[in-house]
Amino acid sequence: MTIIMYKRPASLLYLSILKITQILKHQNMSHFLKNFLPVLVLLVLMVSCQKKEKETKKQEASKDYASYVTTGDLTAELTAPPHVPKPVGNRDAKKLTVEMEIKEEEGEMTDGVRYMYWTFGGSVPGSFIRTRVGDEVEFTLSNHPDNKLPHNIDLHAVTGPGGGATSSLVAPGHSKTFNFKCINPGLYVYHCATAPVGMHIANGMYGLILVEPEGGLPPVDREYYVMQGDFYTKGKYGEQGMQPFDMNKAVDEHADYVVFNGKVGALTGDGSLTAKVGETVRIFMGNGGPNLVSSFHVIGEIFDKVHIEGGDLINENVQTTLVPAGGAAIVEFKVDVPGTFILVDHSIFRAFNKGALGMLKVEGKENAKVYSGTTQEGIYQPEGGTIQEMPTSGKKEEENINKSLAQQITDGKNLYSRTCFACHQSEGQGIPGAFPPLAKADYLNANVNRAISTVLHGLSGEITVNGSKYNSVMTSQNLTDQEIADVLTYVYNSWGNNKTRVTAEMVKTERAKPAPKHKDIHE
Ligand SMILES: [Cu+2]
């Protein structure tokens, strides 16, 4: 009988019922009993056995950690992001002392933008806490005497009223101690739950607590702590100076900043995460909210494993994982090739316009089998063979060689509004944290050959423009010498720049030089 071949009892049962009803229509009852009753009995037995097996498994998983006996004491190591404390390994469950201090501290949201952060342990997100199932945590929450407000803590790893919030409300200059048992393994968010709760969270009062299973999580080469949060300021994104929290925007869920680890660029440049080719990276990814859900993605990587929502269930081969506000996920992946891998909230305007962008820099040997970069670039001629040359060479150049300055500026302006405008913006003002300004730009005015080279070959790596750091990628612009001369002449003769005139000859000289080497960027 073919149905026996199906492995899953549920579908088996369903198929047999189908079969049986079919047979009943055509044959008499005694025939049915003789042939199919034994099969049916067998099936029912199989299904009930499976059910029992499941139940015992479930019991094992929730082994009664509520009454699990601890051996010895330990003071928890707390770390600031992106670092995490040492794995628990196979240590026994212990009485674990956690001491955390709340600090209200001014910090930098992005270049020139100050923000008053409220923090657990002096960082956003707050200190990472690492425990194991069965640990009995003695948690002391201190509110620094310089702080202005009372605070408390609600840990999602706690089984008890308010997740600890009701026991931990503490005024400035005081401390509170409460105890809880880690009963369920998983990665959990903690946050302040003092009214107005949304405001305390919006100011950075969240972090992660990991409860490892017995024996610990499987070892990996690198572990990192990343947490997303959305921020609401009186001024728009990038508006300079001290920016107070904006309650109306928060209620409307109109975030000005969506960032990893508390500020724009926390995980770029010197803050980038690092790894070597061949290593396995584990990211403990949380989302403090207060409002937005994260579509967490690493450009150029696939998560080999995701502990969905920070729980036991593991999904494999995942491109983007959803991390809810007040939720978490553990993602793991092996890095196979070198390059810069970009961490984003794939609600993508948040990444490129609101700050939700980080970097993982991987060093090591190329592996052309896995990824080989551009292997060929050819001339594409959709109209057939009429265009016989690369557009940069020959006649076209000669035709335009005697343009007046005014003509160059007009043509350059035209070109600018077609190609550069999308990133550098209409008045060359750029976008803070993403695209450097070309208006009154010291970097541009300092070196014309460098500017020509940028448009010719593209640019990546850290640069400083008008005192602000940029660490992003400009792709090479496929333009002729004359076009590059025109667009740069337009830029140099606009918005307070130094009125340099760039000629096609200058671009030609620059093109003849070898192109600068760029780090490989996987997008
Ligand atoms: Cu608070």
From TrEMBL:
<feature type="binding site" description="type 1 copper site">
    <location>
        <position position="156"/>
    </location>
    <ligand>
        <name>Cu cation</name>
    </ligand>
</feature>
<dbReference type="InterPro" id="IPR011707">
    <property type="entry name" value="Cu-oxidase-like_N"/>
</dbReference>
<feature type="binding site" description="type 1 copper site">
    <location>
        <position position="346"/>
    </location>
    <ligand>
        <name>Cu cation</name>
    </ligand>
</feature>
<feature type="domain" description="Cytochrome c">
    <location>
        <begin position="407"/>
        <end position="495"/>
    </location>
</feature>
<keyword id="KW-0560">Oxidoreductase</keyword>
<feature type="binding site" description="type 1 copper site">
    <location>
        <position position="200"/>
    </location>
    <ligand>
        <name>Cu cation</name>
    </ligand>
</feature>
<dbReference type="Pfam" id="PF07732">
    <property type="entry name" value="Cu-oxidase_3"/>
</dbReference>
<feature type="binding site" description="type 1 copper site">
    <location>
        <position position="205"/>
    </location>
    <ligand>
        <name>Cu cation</name>
    </ligand>
</feature>
<feature type="binding site" description="type 1 copper site">
    <location>
        <position position="151"/>
    </location>
    <ligand>
        <name>Cu cation</name>
    </ligand>
</feature>
<dbReference type="GO" id="GO:0020037">
    <property type="term" value="F:heme binding"/>
</dbReference>
<keyword id="KW-0186">Copper</keyword>
<comment type="subunit">
    <text>Homotrimer.</text>
</comment>
<keyword id="KW-0408">Iron</keyword>
<dbReference type="GO" id="GO:0005507">
    <property type="term" value="F:copper ion binding"/>
</dbReference>
<feature type="binding site" description="type 1 copper site">
    <location>
        <position position="191"/>
    </location>
    <ligand>
        <name>Cu cation</name>
    </ligand>
</feature>
<dbReference type="InterPro" id="IPR008972">
    <property type="entry name" value="Cupredoxin"/>
</dbReference>
<dbReference type="Pfam" id="PF00034">
    <property type="entry name" value="Cytochrom_C"/>
</dbReference>
<dbReference type="InterPro" id="IPR051459">
    <property type="entry name" value="Cytochrome_c-type_DH"/>
</dbReference>
<comment type="similarity">
    <text>Belongs to the multicopper oxidase family.</text>
</comment>
<dbReference type="InterPro" id="IPR036909">
    <property type="entry name" value="Cyt_c-like_dom_sf"/>
</dbReference>
<dbReference type="GO" id="GO:0050421">
    <property type="term" value="F:nitrite reductase (NO-forming) activity"/>
</dbReference>
<dbReference type="InterPro" id="IPR001287">
    <property type="entry name" value="NO2-reductase_Cu"/>
</dbReference>
<feature type="binding site" description="type 1 copper site">
    <location>
        <position position="192"/>
    </location>
    <ligand>
        <name>Cu cation</name>
    </ligand>
</feature>
<keyword id="KW-0479">Metal-binding</keyword>
<protein>
    <recommendedName>
        <fullName>Copper-containing nitrite reductase</fullName>
        <ecNumber>1.7.2.1</ecNumber>
    </recommendedName>
</protein>
<keyword id="KW-0349">Heme</keyword>
<keyword id="KW-0677">Repeat</keyword>
<dbReference type="GO" id="GO:0009055">
    <property type="term" value="F:electron transfer activity"/>
</dbReference>
<dbReference type="InterPro" id="IPR009056">
    <property type="entry name" value="Cyt_c-like_dom"/>
</dbReference>
